[in-house]
Each structure stands twice: as C-alpha cells, then as structure tokens.
C-alpha cells in the first residue's frame, strides 16, 4: 500500500510526539511504500519568521532521519520542492463547496487560539487534499485530530471523479494507535503549548534535570502507591521492558518506594532509549549537505509522480496536458 504522511515543521519534537505518533509512523515504512514530506507550505499559514521556518524545516528533516526514516526506501521531501501540489490545490478549490470548509473544526480552533484568520488557513484542508491525491495515496496515518481532513479529501476526490470521470484514488485514513497520553513535567498532557516538554534531542543532563522536576502527588514513601494513576509510571511504561515494568508495579503496590528512585530510573531509560538516535542526529548536524541531498533526491522522485497525476487532472478538466 502507498502511505503518505505530512509533518508540520512546528518546533522541537518532544517525547510525547515520539511515543504518541512518530514511532508508529516510522514503523509503517517497513511494510508499505512510504511517501513522507515536511509540510512547509502548510506552516506558512501561521506566518512564521522566514529564518525560523527554514531552520525548523531542516531540524525536522534531521529528526526524522535520526529517528530511523530510511530515505533509500521511503520518499522523503520538502513539500515546497514539489510545487505541482499548489496547482492541484487550485483545481480542487474550484470544485470544493464553501460549506465543506466552513465545517472544518481545525480552522475554528486555530482562530480561537489567536492565529489570524487568513485565507490560507481556511483553504488548508484543500492543500492537504492535494497532497494526498497527487500521490495516489491509499493510506494516510494521522492522529484523531486530522481525521476530518481525510474525510474532506475523500469528499473532494469523489466529487471530482463524479464530475470529470475516474481520476483519483480514494484514500483511507489510518488512525495511529497512540499510547495513552504522555504526561508532561506538570502532569498535564505533554505539549509544546504548555511548555512542559522533554525534547527528544535535548542534552542528556537537561533530560535528567527535567525528569527530577516532574510533579508527583504527596503519598509518603512507606505507603503503597497506585501505578495506574501515577504519571511517573506512565513514563516508565514507554521505555522499560515488560519484565522491568512488572517489577516496578510490584514495588509500587508494596510501598516503601520513593518517587525520587523512580525518577532516576526514568531518566536513565529515556537517555538510553534515545542514545543511538542522538548519535545519528549529531552526525547529521555535521553534514547538512547530506540532509539537503536526501530532500532533493526525494523531491525528484515525488515530483515525477506528482506531474503524472497533474497531467491526468489537467486533461480531465479541459486544460492542456503537461506531459
Ligand atoms: P503539541 O501538543 O506539542 O503541539 P502536536 O499537536 O503537534 O503536539 O502533536 C503531533 C502529534 O504528536 C499528534 O499526532 C499527537 O497525537 C502526538 N502527541 C503530541 N503530544 C502527545 C502526548 N502528550 N501524548 C501522546 N501523543 C502526543
Ligand atoms: N495537517 C497535518 C498536521 O497538522 C499535516 C499535513 C499536511 C498532512 N498535509 C498532509 C498530513 C497530508 C497527512 C497528509 O499534522
């Protein structure tokens, strides 16, 4: 199956992103034909500083490569290096009913968060539909928050096929099975908007310090503790082996376990878990030319597919073909 995944370059990735979505996403590239891109056109909707956008795009590319994206197998590129997608967006816009976009919750959510309601933000789902349809994507792995955009894509594709004849593959969504929500330092959901994150690639000493700062309840050391409700246990679950987790569970229930002991182990486990990836990340930082080359090779492969679809679409609607 061909799977397509778009990644917004929106800041430093944290372990909630990793265990909640990226790990599952990267695992999918083994069995499927992966098309993964960095959605820098989409990022423009929130008007980032130009230098920040360039920097974040490069950082996300390095993060994904360090964490195991295999560029030999998976096509990996920067969205804006395949501009055919914006042309398809225009053609799709002309058959997209306003009502379909007015119903999208992400636009309303973003405006209520204070992002200025520009036209790009409103048209965001049409660009996303173009991303998906131009690569004949069959499966689109997304978190639950993106499900509506896949439905919009299907509606647009069906309407196009009914109007102009069979042109697009109708994609399916694939809701990524998330681990339970990864808690942040203050016990709320880890999120960059709460400033309570542990970044995947921050220094080992900083990870250690942050873990020691995680908020816990005030159950005394001697008292038995409930692993099910403990945010530290939720973190142990991410990185400890099943055998080790079982031991911790017994120690929780028995009592006599201080949270400091648990935190020390969490820090060790997280640092160990990400150590090989960190080494790869450091290597990539020293070699930005290699990263750029991977993205440009990916763009060439993606562009060839995109232009074939665009040619089909242009002819279907009565424009001149390009091939
Ligand atoms: P943030 O909340 O930091 O802005 P995003 O909304 O950009 O994170 O999340 C990107 C992906 O990472 C989503 O698919 C989401 O499901 C996953 N994710 C983010 N934070 C967590 C978390 N604390 N626990 C589990 N998954 C998360
Ligand atoms: N909207 C997605 C997000 O915010 C990113 C994205 C853009 C995307 N184009 C896509 C995801 C196409 C899947 C398919 O996470």
SSE blueprint and pairings:
Layout: E1 2-7, H1 15-31, E2 33-38, H2 40-43, H3 50-66, E3 75-78, H4 84-93, H5 98-102, H6 105-112, H7 119-134, E4 139-142, H8 147-164, E5 172-175, H9 204-212, H10 231-239, H11 242-254, H12 259-285, H13 288-317
Parallel strand pairs: 1-2, 2-3, 4-5
Helix pairs in contact: 3-12, 3-13, 4-7, 4-13, 7-8, 9-12, 10-12
Task: Describe what this molecule looks like in 3D.
The structure is a single chain. With 323 residues, the chain is mainly α. It folds into 2 domains: 209 residues, 3-Layer(aba) Sandwich (Rossmann fold); 82 residues, Tyrosyl-Transfer RNA Synthetase (Orthogonal Bundle). Helix 3 crosses helix 12 and helix 10 packs across helix 12. The protein is built from 13 helices and 5 strands. The protein is elongated, with a radius of gyration of 22 Å. Strand 4, helix 8 and strand 5 form a beta-alpha-beta unit. Helix content is 57%, strand content 7%. The strands form 2 sheets. The protein has a 3-stranded parallel β-sheet with strand order 1-2-3. Strands 4-5 form a two-stranded parallel ribbon. The protein binds adenosine-5'-diphosphate (ADP) and tryptophan (TRP). Tryptophan (TRP) binds next to strand 1, helix 7 and strand 4.
């Amino acid at each position: 199956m061909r799977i397509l995944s778009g990644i917004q370059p929106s800041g430093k990735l944290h372990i909630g992103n990793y265990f909640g979505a990226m790990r599952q996403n990267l695992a999918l590239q083994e069995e499927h034909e992966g098309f993964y891109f960095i959605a820098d056109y989409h990022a423009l909707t929130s008007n980032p500083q130009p230098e920040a956008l360039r920097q974040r795009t490069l950082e996300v590319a390095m993060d994904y490569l360090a964490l195991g994206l295999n560029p030999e197998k998976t096509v990996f590129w920067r969205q804006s290096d395949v501009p055919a997608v914006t042309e398809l967006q225009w053609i799709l816009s002309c058959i997209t009913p306003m009502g379909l976009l007015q119903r999208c919750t992400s636009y309303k959510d973003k405006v209520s968060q204070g992002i200025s309601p520009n036209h790009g933000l409103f048209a965001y789902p049409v660009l996303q539909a173009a991303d998906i349809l131009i690569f004949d994507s069959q499966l689109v792995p997304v978190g639950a928050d993106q499900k509506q955009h896949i439905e919009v894509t299907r509606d647009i594709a069906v309407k196009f096929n009914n109007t102009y004849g069979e042109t697009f593959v109708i994609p399916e969504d694939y809701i990524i099975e998330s681990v339970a929500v990864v808690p942040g330092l203050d016990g709320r959901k880890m999120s960059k908007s709460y400033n309570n994150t542990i970044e995947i690639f921050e220094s080992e000493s900083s990870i250690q310090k942050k873990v020691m700062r995680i908020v816990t309840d005030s159950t005394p050391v001697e008292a038995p503790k409930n692993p099910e409700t403990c945010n530290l246990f939720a973190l142990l679950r991410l990185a400890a082996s099943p055998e080790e987790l079982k031991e911790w569970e017994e120690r929780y229930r028995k009592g006599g376990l201080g949270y400091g002991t648990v935190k020390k182990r969490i820090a060790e486990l997280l640092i160990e878990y990400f150590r090989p990836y960190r080494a790869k990340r450091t290597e990539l930082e020293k070699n930005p030319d290699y990263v750029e080359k991977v993205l440009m090779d990916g763009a060439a492969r993606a562009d060839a597919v995109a232009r074939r679809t665009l040619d089909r679409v242009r002819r279907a609607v009565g424009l001149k073909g390009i091939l």
